[in-house]
Amino acid sequence: MNLEQQLITRRLEPTEQTTLSREVQEIALRQSRYLDGANFRSIHPEDLRRLFELYDDRYFDGACRQAVGKAPLSFRLSPRMTSAGGKTVREETTRPGRPSIVKYEIVISTTLLFQTFHDVDRPVSVTGLMCQNRFEALQRIFEHELVHLMEMVVWVHSSCAQSRFQSIARRFFGHREHTHQLITPKERAVAKFNIRPGDAVEFTFEGRRLKGFVNRITKRATVLVESPTGRPYTDGKSYEKYYVPVASLRRRPK
Ligand SMILES: [Zn+2]
Questions:
Q1: Sheet holding 208-217, edge to edge
Q2: Which of the listed residues 124, 158, 183 is the one where a domain comes to its end?
Q3: What's the predicted TM-score (pTM) here?
Q4: 200 to 169, 193, 205, 206, 233: CA distances (angstroms)
Q5: Residues 121 and 73 reside in one and the same domain
Q6: How far is the CA of 145 from the centre of ligand 1 (A)?
Q7: C-alpha 83 to ligand 1 mean position (Å)
Q8: Ligand 1 mean position, distance from CA 36 (Å)
């Protein structure tokens, strides 16, 4: 069966889903030169490629690779993605009078993975399934992105808000939702340091004690400090912007 037929017609039993997913985990951890356990502390794009091959072999009998054909498929880890767990990109370059070139890329957020199962203790569910460890969270994110990739390869467009996507994700991987509850830098900042956007804070920068307020929290906090040489903001004052690790901020009364 080619990939399109499989995506439309096949359904795996829940027990088969569990068995296959455990096999993937076991082999991926055993063969990796970077993953040091189920709550791994390092990972390499090579591990994502291996995941793709394992899923393709075990779940789809190699039909993904066949459908992707000669189109380049790359895997990337991003420390910058701080709210989405992953993303899949299809890039098409059109050339006048010749067939266009299509490329695919799957990107996984390392920031979210490494912050989850780290120091904020709560159960974590990804795609509606409870995860026991970091590798399971990675698998659920990867499966989600794999469904995006397969839809793009077969039908060009892919949307996880739509029923075709959700049906595939449910029939092959048992996903119940298309969202994750990984621990974001924003949540960690509140849980661990009690710092939220809007909070008045102080911190030390090059030996000076500065006072400002938190504007946003991504990997680090963006702190605005009032300054005559800064940029004007909507409140009529001027501010300099500082990127500060949340752990270095101290709250102060407003
Ligand atoms: Zn999605």
A1: 238-244, 221-232, 208-217, 200-205, 250-251
A2: 183
A3: 0.76
A4: 43, 13, 16, 20, 17
A5: yes
A6: 7
A7: 12
A8: 28
Distance CA 228, CA 172 (A): 58
For residue 84, the CA-to-ligand 1 centroid distance in Å is 9
Measure 226 CA to ligand 1 centroid, in angstroms: 39
Residue 228: which domain range?
A: 187-251
Do 129 and 213 share a domain, yes or no? no
Give phi and psi for 79, each to the nearest 5.
-80, -10
What is the 252 CA–ligand 1 centroid distance (Å)? 39
Q: Do 152 and 192 belong to one domain?
A: no
Residue 20, pLDDT > 70, answer yes
For residue range 79-128, list pLDDT tens digits in order. 988 778 899 999 999 989 998 999 999 999 998 888 877 766 677 888 88
Ligand 1 center to residue 101 CA distance, Å?
23
- Structural domain total, the chain: 2
Tell me, in angstroms, the distance from the centre of ligand 1 to residue 165's CA.
Answer: 9
**DSSP three-state, residue 180:** strand
Percent of the chain at pLDDT above 90? 64
180 Cα: distance to centroid of ligand 1 (angstroms): 10
Tokens at 194, concatenated: 């009690």
Do 141 and 205 share a structural domain? Answer: no
What is the spatial distance between Cα 239 and Cα 229, in angstroms, rounded to a whole number?
8
Q: What is the pLDDT of residues 173-201, one digit of tens each?
A: 999 888 766 677 777 777 778 888 889 99
Strands, E assignment, 82-165: 86-95, 98-109, 124-126, 129-131
